[in-house]
Amino acid sequence: MLKFINFPLWIIFSILSFGILTHEIIVDETISNANASIIKTIESDNDEIIDCYSIHKQHAFSNPLFRNHPIQMRPSSYPQGVQPKEQKKFELTQTWHKYGLCPEGTVPIRSKHLHPSSSDDVTTTNEYASITPIGENFQGAQATINLWKPLIEQPREFSASQIWISTGDKEAIEAGLEVNKNLYGDEKPRIFVYWTVTDHFNSTGCYNIQCRGFVQTTSKISLDFIFNNLSIFRGTQYSADFIMFKVKTSSNIQGIVVGYWPHFLFKQLSTKATRIDFGGQISNTKPNMRHTKTQIGSVKVFDGNYEAKVPGTVFMIQSNTNCYGLSLGQTDSSGIIFYYGGPGFSSTCQ
């Protein structure tokens, strides 16, 4: 059995409304015009720069929909059976912390926004290994994701482990870990959020804060940061806990909150989600006319009664069983444990 060493991290995306993945990027032009909102700049390793933005002047608030929107610093309540770990145990450090911290009242934003190269001459296929609980009224989801660094063969390929929350074919939000050299410029696993509205990624879809919607609320965590500790095959294992849920009302509660999507960004997701997926996804560019070598590196759902429950019956989704497998493990009060992944190109995966 894998032993998960205590790596105290709760990433809480508290969703005041409800905010599956093709990873096409729409970058908002207002990002380049926000220098006046930067309170402090921190230079980190590998030429990475963290800008500390005034929390009230972060990119989301240049969206006219946010006019007169009061920032919700913390969710008012958590689903029954779910609480964040004690704040005194929150020991997560990012690489840039060695060189300084963002002051209270600001949010850290990585300033190196990469623009993906054109994909006109590249054909990609997305492949999945995931599970989907049966149900039509979900208020959120929780998952523990192993911190792993999968191999990425081609620059335009990615590998992600994540939670998808959606209305099936329209609106969706997601969060997890991803290796995406085309987006971040390296092959290191990073936290990400992604969301789309109304058209299931046909013309909308955005990572992190690259367009105006997701509101950051913490000065301690930067989205798309690099993990200092990663799991080693047959060695020490590290994991991170992710929780996303719809908030009933707004006030204060103890805990670490990364941010949220306001209800007015969505239509159907403002009341409920109709589908939740847990698992992994890769993109396959079929280098040299063969399958890529790119690898895929305990879950609960929150029902309509706002209770955290272990999923009952689940569908197993495997788009290419010759390349990426999925196996259900034990199920107990802590949730379902399942394993997914694969090496990509091999004797059975062509």
TrEMBL record:
Ranges annotated as spanning the membrane: 7-26
Keywords: Membrane, Transmembrane, Transmembrane helix
InterPro entries named in the record: Glutamic_endopeptidase, Neprosin, Neprosin_propep
Sequence ranges assigned to domain Neprosin PEP catalytic in this UniProt record: 116-350
The protein's name: Neprosin PEP catalytic domain-containing protein
Organism (species): Papaver atlanticum
Taxonomic path: Eukaryota, Viridiplantae, Streptophyta, Embryophyta, Tracheophyta
